[in-house]
Amino acid sequence: MSPQLEVQLIAVVIAAACAIPGVFLVLRRMAMLSDAISHTVLLGIVLGYFLTRDLASPLLFVGAVAMGVATVSLVELVSRTGLVKEDAAIGLVFPALFSVAVILISRFASNVHLDTDSVLLGELALAPFDRLILLGLDLPRALVVGLGTLLLNLVLVLLFYKELKLATFDAALAAALGFAPALVHYGLMTVVSITAVGAFDAVGSILVIALMVGPPAAAYLLTDRLSRMLALSVLIGAASALAGYWFAAWLDVAIAGSMATMVGVAFLLVYLFAPERGLIATAARRARQRWLFAEQMLALHLLNHAGTPEAAAECASDQVGEHLRWRPVFAAEVVRRAEQGGLVRRQGPMLALTERGRALAQEASLR
Amino acid sequence: MELFTDYTLRTVALGAALLGVVSGVLGCFAVLRRQALLGDAMSHAALPGIALAFMLTGRREPLILLVGAALAAWLAALLLLAITRTTRVKEDSGLALLLAVFFGFGLVLLSLLQQRPDAAQAGLKSFLFGQAAALVERDVVAMAALGLPALLCVALLWKQFKLISFDPEYAASLGMPVGLLGVALTTLIVVAIVIGLQTVGVVLMSAMLVAPAAAARQWTDRLGVMVLLAAAFGATSGVVGALISATGRGLSTGPTIVLCMAVITAVSLLFAPERGILWRRRRIALSERVPGA
C-alpha cells in the first residue's frame, strides 16, 4: 500500500472510531468533555513516560486513559462541592492539567519525540513510517491502534446498545430499571478516553474533538433514530476525513487542520440543506405555512360574510385584503394562490368559495 | 531589583498585569452568566482571524492582528447563537464543534503561511501557547488601547451588567435591552480574550477568564468585591507567571501563568472563609461536637 493510501485509511478508521462514542457525548450534552479529555490525556502520556522512560511502553496508553477518566471525575468532584458551576469546573480543571503536561515536556522532555505542536496537530503525514508487524503483516502502528479502537467501540455499542439508548434518552427510567447510571457514564468516559488516546498520536487533540462532535452533531439534524445517527456519523466523519486529506494534499497544508475544517464544511452543508431540519427546509416550510394560513383566513372570511347584507363590500376581490388588514400586494398574492388552488372563484367583482374552499374554511373554523 | 531596571521585564510585567486585570474583571461576568466554556471556544476561534489578518495586510502590527482575532472570535459566538437558536443541536456540541473547526482552519492558514519565504510569519506560532518574553512596547500599547476602554465600559454599564448577570428576567421587566447588553458583554469578553493571545496563547486563554473569577467568588458574595479580587488575582498570576517564563528556559508563558492561577484557585476553593471546603468541614465537625449548638 502506498503511504498516501495508508494515511487515508488511518484517517477514515479514526474518524469512524471517534464518531461512535461522539454520538453519545452529543446526545448526553457532554460534548465539551471531549475537549477536556483530549487535552489532559497528554499529561497521562508524559507521566507514563517519566515512569518508564520508554515512549513505546503500553503503560503510556494506560496512563493516558486513566488520566482522561480522572479528568472527568475531577470535574465532577469540583462541581459537586457547589462552589463553582459545572462549565466553570471544566474550564478550571483541564487547562491546569494540560499546563502541567506542557511545562513538563518543555522542561524535562524536550529532547524526546514529544512536542507540544504535534499534540495539537498530530502527525498524520508521518504515521505510515511508524510500523509494526502484526500476524505477519507489516502495518502502520496508527492503523493497528485505530482499528483496535474502532473494533472495541463497535463491539461495545452492539453489546450495550439497549442500555446506552435507555440511559441516554431516559436516565430516570434507566436508573429505576437498575442500570447503574454512574456505570454507564464512566464506561462511556473510559471509551471516550481510549478513543482519544488511540487517535491522539495520529491526528492531535483538536481533530479528536472535531471528529467526536462534528459528525454526530450533523447526523443529529438528519435523523431521529439512534441507529441511523450512528451510521450517518461514521459516514460523515469518514467523508470529512477523506475530503480533508485531499484538500490538504492539494494546497500542501496541515492535514489535521484541513480535516477539522472539512468537518465544519460538512456540518454547514447539513445545517443548510438537511431535508427536514435544515435552514432552507425550515424557511421553506415557514413560508408555505404562512401562505396556507393566509388562504385559510381568506376562506373563513368569505364563509362568514357570504350571503350577508355587507357581502358586497366584504367579499369584493379588491377589498377583501383591507378587511383582513393585509397589505395590497400580499392580499393580491393570497387571492391569486387561492384561485389557483381551486379554493375561490371570481363572480364578477366578488370572490366566492368553491366546494374545496368551503371545506377548508369549515375545517379551519372547527379547530 | 531587576524588575525595576530591566526594560524588557518591565514591559512583560506591565502587559501581563494589564491582561490579568481585564480578563479577571470580564471573566467574573462570563462565569456568572455560565459562559465559562464560551471563552474557551472563542479563544480557539481567534486563531484563523490572526492568520487571515496577517495574510491580508502582510504586517505583524499587533493592533491589526488583534482586530482580526476579535472578529473571528465574535463570528464564532454569532454562529453558536445561530446554531443553538435554529436547530436542536445543544450549546455544548455547538461550542466543541466551532472550537475545533475554527482552530483547525487556523492551523490550515498557519501552515499555508509557512510556505512563504519571508520571516514575518515566523512569530505567529507563538500565539498557540503565548510568548510573553517577546512582548514589546507597541504590543502593550495595543493591549491598553483595547483593554482600558473595555474596563471603562464595564464601569459605565455596571448596574446593567450586574442585573443581567444575576436576574435577566427582572432586567427585562425593567425595560432593559437584555439581548443587546448580552451582546455587549460578549464583545467585551472577546476583547479580554484578544488581549491575552500574545501572552497566554489561544489554547489556554479561557483559563484566564474562568480561574480568577472562580477563585474570587469564594471570598465574597458581593459583585464589586469579586471583580476587584479577580482583577488582583489575574494580575498577580499574570505578572508572576510571565516573569518566571521570561527568565526561565523553554517555558511557554501560557502554561506558567495558568499554573500560578491554578494554585490561587485551589487555595481559594480549600481555605476561603465560609465557603471553602476545609472551612465547611470544620464547621460540620464543630456542630457535631456541640449537639444542638
Write structural notes for this entry.
The complex is a heterodimer of chains A (367) and B (293). Chain A is mostly helical and 367 residues long. In chain A, 76% of the residues lie in helices and 4% in strands. Chain A has 2 domains: 3-274, ABC transporter involved in vitamin B12 uptake, BtuC (Orthogonal Bundle); 280-366, Winged helix-like DNA-binding domain superfamily/Winged helix DNA-binding domain (Arc Repressor Mutant, subunit A, Orthogonal Bundle). Chain A has 16 helices and 4 strands. In chain A, β3 and β4 (350-353) form a beta hairpin. In chain A, α1 (3-27) runs parallel beside α6 (141-159). The N and C termini of chain A lie far apart (66 Å). Chain B has 293 residues and is mainly α. Chain B has a single domain (2-289), classed as Orthogonal Bundle (ABC transporter involved in vitamin B12 uptake, BtuC), CATH 1.10.3470.10. Helices cover 77% and strands 0% of the residues of chain B. Chain B contains 13 helices and no strands. The mean pLDDT of chain B is 87. Chains A and B meet through α2, α4, α5, α9 and α11 of A and α3, α5, α10 and α12 of B.
